[in-house]
TrEMBL record:
Signal peptide: none
Superkingdom of origin organism: Bacteria
Domain NAD-dependent epimerase/dehydratase: 15-240
Family matches, as Gene3D superfamilies: NAD(P)-binding Rossmann-like Domain
GO MF annotations, alphabetized: L-threonine 3-dehydrogenase activity
Annotated organism of origin: Kriegella aquimaris
InterPro entries, per database record: Epimerase_deHydtase (IPR001509), NAD(P)-bd_dom_sf (IPR036291), NAD(P)_epim/dehydratase (IPR051225)
Family statement: Belongs to the NAD(P)-dependent epimerase/dehydratase family.
Biological process terms in GO annotation: L-threonine catabolic process
Protein name (database record): Nucleoside-diphosphate-sugar epimerase
Length: 323
């Protein structure tokens, strides 16, 4: 086993990211490497990622559903904290329900059990607005309300939240979670989500000057720019344990918009940009989700505050993707 050396003397924590090559995982790894040190943040995924991720610190090929392999990496690097970012998202999960359930649930049980057995001390696990369903109040959806998700992904996220809550109360596991809205970023493409249109549209606006949207023009969904999502993730993990009152997952909000509104905001910079609509199976998923989220508890408990609205997001996306 690797000697911990100065790290343990200085009581610094070692961090493992599972699913580090995905849309959130990539940016989270880079941000954590800036916050801590490159050597303290171990990136892992079932495939290799971009150069920025691979070259800036340790990387391991690791399947989050393989408990033995995971346990070995945790022991080797003397991991304290795990961020479980590996998951199958809403649109892909509808096509492969059992694969989605197995990946989303087995990976979660693996990290929960590592913490239960005191092999790691804390976990971040992302939930989603997908925990809500057609019977949930759509506007300003509260923290505690009717959920009844109607998608495979949403069912796995709601179950995951119940298990996190259970492991915390039964075994004292320090697992913290956020219900992410749709995330908009320029460094890594999302994959297999219903909110992915809000990233694709910027790429297509710049490359083709037009975009065919797979959701209807008036589909209003909660969204967030990636910088806000990363800040929230790091804030919830850094806050004192006594501030965490929700052990299922926290509602989190920044903005809500429709495809028509995002297209209009792009037109401010690219006046010739055109959008057409060709809704597919993802429309039903989107229709089952809230229009906007009430994140009073995250604000009150650990000081959450969003910084990016639609205009700021559009400016950042177009500026960075232009290069
Ligand atoms: C998806 O669209 O599946 C995700 C999510 C809202 O969790 N972006």
């Amino acid at each position: 086993m690797k000697a911990k050396g100065f790290n343990s003397i200085l009581m610094q924590k070692n961090i493992l990211i599972l699913g580090a090559c995905g849309q959130i995982g990539t940016e989270l790894t880079l941000a954590l490497r800036q916050e801590y040190s490159n050597d303290q943040v171990i990136a892992s995924d079932i495939r290799e990622g971009g150069e920025n991720l691979m070259d800036s610190g340790p990387f391991e090929i690791l399947d989050a559903t393989d408990y033995d392999a995971l346990e070995e990496i945790v022991a080797y690097y003397e991991i304290d904290e795990v961020y479980l970012m590996a998951a199958m998202l809403s649109a892909t999960a509808e096509k492969f329900p059992m694969r989605a359930w197995n990946l989303n649930m087995n990976s979660l049980f693996n990290v929960l059990n590592l913490a239960k057995d005191k092999k790691i001390s804390s976990i971040f696990w992302p939930s989603s607005i997908a925990v809500f369903g057609p019977n949930t109040p759509k506007m300003n959806t509260p923290q505690h309300t009717i959920m009844e998700p109607s998608t495979v992904y949403g069912i796995s996220k709601q179950s995951g939240e119940r298990w996190c809550n259970y492991y915390h109360h039964k075994y004292g596991v320090d697992v913290r979670s956020i219900r992410y809205p749709g995330l908009i970023s320029w460094k890594t493409m999302p994959g297999g989500g219903t909110t992915d249109y809000a990233v694709e549209i910027y790429h297509k606006a710049l490359s083709d000057g037009e975009y065919t949207c797979f959701l209807k023009e008036d589909t209003n969904l909660p969204m967030m720019f990636m910088d806000d999502a990363i800040r929230a993730t790091m804030a919830i993990m850094k806050t004192d344990i006594t501030n965490i009152k929700e052990r299922s997952s926290y509602n989190l909000a920044a903005m809500s918009f429709t495809p028509d509104q995002i297209a209009r905001s792009i037109k401010q910079s690219i006046p010739d940009f055109t959008i057409t609509y060709n809704p597919d199976f993802r429309q039903r998923i989107a229709d089952s989700w809230p229009n906007s989220i009430d994140d009073t508890e995250a604000k009150a408990d650990w000081g959450w505050k969003a910084e990016f609205d639609l205009e700021k997001t559009t400016n950042e996306m177009l500026r960075n993707l232009k290069h």
